[in-house]
Write a structure and sequence with these properties.
The chain has 5 helices and no strands. The protein is an all-alpha fold. The protein has one domain.
Length: 107
């Protein structure tokens, strides 16, 4: 890749990032979205987080090491779900997940 091609790709990435991330903020500034649109946009963060978590929990060869090593992340995830539903706090959910996973690895 030549420097010219590199700069072309970099400028195109920058323009795309500005067009997709910054421009909508300026266009929608001060405007009220319809309730259905607001509700639909509210599903994006939980869906993205669920996709990331599911990608880490489920993988080929999950049970190759045995049942308990495969169950540890699921038990920790269940603890996180319980805390998340109860507290609705990302901080406490993350702390619970780390502590539960660490304690389950010690067993």
């Amino acid at each position: 890749m030549t420097w010219t091609e590199f700069w072309i790709v970099l400028v195109c990435c920058g323009i795309t990032m500005l067009a997709c991330r910054v421009l909508p903020l300026f266009i929608l500034k001060g405007k009220e979205l319809p309730p259905a649109m607001s509700k639909a946009l509210g599903f994006i963060p939980p869906a993205a987080f669920a996709a990331l978590v599911a990608n880490d929990l489920l993988f080929p060869g999950l049970f190759d090491a045995g049942l308990w090593p495969a169950a540890v992340p699921f038990v920790a995830a269940a603890a996180v779900v319980l805390v998340a539903v109860k507290t609705k706090s990302l901080l406490w959910s993350a702390v619970t997940g780390v502590v539960a996973y660490a304690l389950l690895l010690l067993i």
